[in-house]
Predict the 3D structure of the following.
Amino acid sequence: MQLASSGGRRLRHAALAAGRLALGSGPSVTRKDLSEACRMAEEALGLRPSVRLVLSELVANWGEQTWERLLVWPSNEHLVRRTGLSERAVRDAFRALVDLGVIVPKESPNGKRYALRDAEGKVVDAYGFDLTPLYARRETWAGMVAVRKAERTRIRRAFDEITIARRATQEALAALRDTFPDVSLTELETAHAALTARTPRRSATMPPETLIDEWRELRANAEDLFFLAGKDGEICRHNESNTESSGEACNNGAEPAECDPSYHQPTTGADPTDETTVLHDVLTTSTQHRRRVIHRRSQSAAPTGEGRTPLSPEMLIAAVPEACPAVLQFGRPLRATKDLVDLGRHVRSLLGASETVWIEAEASIGATQAATSVLYVLQLYEDDLIEHGGESRIRNPGGYLRAFVRLVASGKIDLNSELLGMRRRRMKQ
């Protein structure tokens, strides 16, 4: 590589490209504007502390001259005194800033930095460093800062999701130990210990996506095991002869055999589309396999739609807040079905329903009906709390939601009709 003849400094492409940048025809630059561009460049490029110190001091030495170029000419001795760095560190910072296209050296014949004055002693030009690229690229710095912030947010949210799943898993395991000491937790505890050992501490590096998925799956498995071990009757099927309100306990009038969790275990030679085998598969298969199994069964056993109450998207959006005023507490306006689905996803976790419940609901009755079911069950739960003095008969809203969705999917409950009925009762109050 050849040397530039003016001062022995190595010729760099970045310096040539930066030297072609101009200030433009906008308003004159102030020190405040240049300082803001400096701060954005420091953040956008992730400059080392020593390089930041030198760049900040160069900006501070600019005298707000009304020239075509933003020139500064502080000596190395001055910069060493102001920054507390060694002269070699200062020179290294110069090299880094030139390589990044932030500053451009303007060399003098003797390699020194100094100002040129006219006969009256007024500075008219100078040899030193040109800060014009720093200011001219301010939009570039702003874009890079936005990208870095978005990446930091994405990383932070990924670690937050891992933390939430990890804590929820620990709580589920602790609840299983305390409430159901006879349930074997060896497999879950082994998986939990292995995942904990593989989970890195929070850092600026994105954790593997597979790790996030594994934590989600472990949490779902632990919560589903706790739900199944509860044997509270929420997973039993409603009888077709049950004409009471959906707020009644779901084992109302059911035969004892139907309320026993063993009733839901698959038997040899059972029809794979039978609804009694779905729960076992959901609890024992992986998340990816769950999606395939539920989708396949929903396709083969989907209701024909006969006997369903038709309801346009506009009517549904209008009916939901009138029938379920509990949704108003979230402060989310419902303008389209997308807003309804987003709210349903949010409320699902508040009901204590695991992600597998939403996956099954979305696959079997669609996202819009799944969200409507979530909000409907939320209102049932809220009404029951008020009616019974703060103690609802729906002891497990997440389990109730799962059972309710399956009844909607099988055609035993007309969700739109139930929603309109709740709306009519609400309007008569």
Q: What stands out?
A: The two ends are 87 Å apart (CA to CA). DSSP finds 18 helices and four strands in the chain. Residues 1-8, 231-307 have pLDDT under 50 and may be disordered. The first helix runs from residue 13 to 19.
